[in-house]
Write a structure and sequence with these properties.
The structure is a homodimer. The first copy, chain A, is built from seven helices and two strands, in the order H-H-H-E-E-H-H-H-H. The first copy, chain A, is mainly alpha-helical and about 160 residues long. In chain A, helix 1 crosses helix 3, helix 1 crosses helix 4 and helix 1 crosses helix 6. The structure holds a DNA duplex (39 and 39 nucleotides).
Chain lengths: ~160, ~160
Amino acid sequence: MKLSGGVEWALHCCVVLSAANSAPVAVARLAEFHDVSTTYLAKQMQALSRAGIVRSTQGHSGGYALTREPSKITVLDIVEAIDGTQSTFACTEIRQRGPMATPAEACVKPCAINRAMISADRAWRDALREVTVADLARDVDKDYDADVMATVSGWLADETA
Amino acid sequence: MKLSGGVEWALHCCVVLSAANSAPVAVARLAEFHDVSTTYLAKQMQALSRAGIVRSTQGHSGGYALTREPSKITVLDIVEAIDGTQSTFACTEIRQRGPMATPAEACVKPCAINRAMISADRAWRDALREVTVADLARDVDKDYDADVMATVSGWLADETA
DNA sequence: GGCAAGCTACTCGGATACACGGTGTCCGAGTGCATGGGG
DNA sequence: CCCCATGCACTCGGACACCGTGTATCCGAGTAGCTTGCC
């Protein structure tokens, strides 16, 4: 029950991209900024691209940019893009097996165990859906430094220049 | 982000054990009932034993039994026994890395991303804590058959005899 | 008949192989920009 | 001076190895109950 490590990178990258004002940022820049593997981060960004969260621009001075307002991108979107939308619990319907198997026609509804898991999974996703990239960016400014986002923005501009 | 498959087995086993009235049930019986691997199920039961959820009795007519009332055993207890208590998200503090690293003394509090994840994790665990083994057993009776629990209890008695 | 010692068979427990998914990396296809020549 | 063709360097994208965790299994240690012999 561990989340893929790439999720953290993807989240941080989305926050940084929200400071770039829709200007494309190359993977190499993002990787350098976070001091992580460029190639592996590229894999995560591809997943974000496939999920429609970021838009890729090729060629010189290309890169990735958010496709919509940071306030319209939830943490859940990013998590599901990287880690998949599959539920945390996969019911194998073992009640239909064994000497006292429940007949299949009685199994139209998920069993109590599965329901509890689905409910918990829903609570988890709901919590993640509550937080947007814009929230993350705002909290970063508020909590850690006076204007990290502005500094990041400037750093991105310098690097691009 | 997938839960260990053994969690499902452990949950079902705890429900069955709640029908056994504290009488020890061997792993072989549980495995036969669910039609799953005996040896692997044994591993899960060992984890439950280590967590103090079940008590093992050795020797002839030994086996596993719940250590406390089914209403005092939550789904979360079982999940954490099998899958560990570690959080779903492991913050690697990448904000302290790279050319614009945040100084460590400013990182006394978890970052916004980590906080969102912790909050979601908490919501998930809270939901699992709400459901007990007694609830599961009751719902099994209510939803699927007239008195599955009684039948299970009788089956266990027959097998033991 | 009652009791105790020994044996048997059944139980759990931890240590040991195998497999799949995540982790990490690489090179190729595609494209926008810069440049240089011509009009 | 302006426009266009060409080349280039930089970008993403998918295909390819490696490793760790979970999956599955086995055999050994320990104990409760049955059997049997004795008192």
